[in-house]
Amino acid sequence: MTKTFYVMRHGETLFNTQKRVQGACDSPLTEKGIEQAQEVAEYFKQKNFHFEAVYSSTQERATDTAKIVAQTDCITQLKGLKEMNFGIFEAQAEMLLPKHRPGSNSFEDLLVPYGGEDIVKVGERVHKTLVDTMAQHEGECLFVSHGAAMWGLVQLLNIQFPPGVRFSNCAIMKWELGGDALSLIELILPSEDFKVYPFKKEDNR
């Protein structure tokens, strides 16, 4: 049986506006971030989505986004959805982060020597959390997580993204789960008037 679920990034936060590294540390949603979440709530309402359950990471910015989007306080927090830990770079200016290796589109394991996480390991814990949680459900569910955590899942599954496309605030991924196999079906970007980027099986390698 194939199951469908959605994974989305939180709304804009204070640290996002200050261009500060925000991984294990947290900051509150801005007014714009709240509005972004409200727009997603309206989008889901117009699409007549009814989620069997709603989950978020244990971080405030994700939980608050989930409550606004789902229009309920009945949110279950999951540690496996937490953002990537950036080690000593937490809460520092983004410009201080090490540069990606040539040809890479992620930090890979560059942050490990600084007390951070390997992004593929982040993807592994997100993957396990999603698969294990969806095993408990038959209907559609919503998971609110974080940009690097979502990108870690993409890296783990070696999914090919269109050039220049990234997870803006409140970006939504539609997934299908068959057995233990995850397939990305769509990326929906509220920042682009809810433009839909479809994915084919060959994009999921």
From TrEMBL:
| InterPro entries reported for this sequence | His_Pase_superF_clade-1, His_PPase_superfam, PG/BPGM_mutase_AS, PGM_Phosphatase
Which Pfam families does this entry report, sorted A to Z? His_Phos_1
* Superkingdom, natural source: Bacteria
SUPFAM superfamilies recorded: Phosphoglycerate mutase-like (SSF53254)
Task: Please state what the protein is called.
Answer: Histidine phosphatase family protein
Biological source species: Streptococcus caprae
